[in-house]
Amino acid sequence: MGVKTTSRIVSCLALAALTVAGCGNKAGDEKPTNGTASGAPIIIGLDEDSTGSGASYSTIAGKTIRLAVQDVNDKGGVLGRPLQLVVENDESDPTKVPAVLQKLAGQGAKALFLQSGSAAILQAKSTLTALGLPAIAPTGVTATLVQPPDNELIYMLANTTTDWADVYCGAFKAANITKLGVLTDDTTTIAALDKALLPALSCVQIVATEKGAANASDLSAQVARLKNANPDAVLVTSVGGAFEVLAQNTLGSQMKGTKRFSLASIGNQPSSWKLAAPGALEGLIFMGSINTANPRTQALVTLLKEKYGKDYDITAYDAQAWDSVHVLKQAIEKAGGVDDSKKLNEAIQSIKGYPATFGQANFTLSFGADKHLGADGPCGLSLIEFGADNKPKGPWATFQPPCNK
């Protein structure tokens, strides 16, 4: 792949990211209205990275959070009251998080959605404790987000990197992979994720780890060094976007025939697929959460296509965002309102067996005083393989996670 082609891909991805982040109320991202609900609105805060390193996935989830809020309002709201979002942007910058959350609280938010990078959300924990506001991190995957200290008010839905490690190890064993190379970006989000994930991959020998800048225009040197280490497979860990496309293009060209794995990022960013070189994603296996055998996933697919067009590709970010809104709705109903934050927090902890919109058909979410991670088992995950058309073709036939550990 030539320099001009690489530059064009990077430029196009940057433009696409700016388009998503900067177009305000366009493209189905309307501010939710009251619908058929009446009475005083229930104000919910959304900390959404719309311009930083996590924007490529946060804006997808943010759009579906808005859609879910509108759906709730159209169906009468919560306890007859409409949900109203107030939104701020932390740019996935941990230093900006306290001020952002305080601003949302100052605007009347009674609960929060933390849709940003993991490193930023980690910084939110102590501020949540000070504010006394419960919060859900719709697409968070780092287990430390819901572990002590200061975890009393924060919740996650998705399987964490601990489950990811178990699933990757099951996959590596099934595919006879014993030596692994790792290609990673330099974002704080991925640094935190790698710190949790890579040491847990004790099932393989990591023979080389290479890092590139998130805005890199050339990864040839890093991939050459990975190739010299002779791994059985390469795992790419990145927030997605331009880096991921460049990584897969380079790996597909220089290490053709070597098995490739990735995080959820590439599978959840359909705008990136068409920017990859023809066939560059073929055979790539990513950690997915969308399983169309789940009837609730099918229903959300139908709704999203009606809203955004028949070519819309659902992502885990859509499903997790949707479920976050409805988990909070259920908690508000259980608590009888939002004025007592302690009662609302206890109501979240009382939710058991919520049928999730992502994962396999029998995957559920449950919470408790000592269970702030909703996932009930590892079958909220699926390993998905890309086809020759640079689109996901379905579950990887070699291995899939079981529903029970």
From TrEMBL:
Pfam families: Peripla_BP_6. Keywords: Signal. Residues 41-364 form the Leucine-binding protein domain. PROSITE patterns: PROKAR_LIPOPROTEIN. The keyword Repressor does not apply. Residues 1-16 form the signal peptide. PANTHER family: LEUCINE-SPECIFIC-BINDING PROTEIN, PERIPLASMIC BINDING PROTEIN OF ABC TRANSPORTER FOR NATURAL AMINO ACIDS. Belongs to the leucine-binding protein family. This is ABC transporter substrate-binding protein.
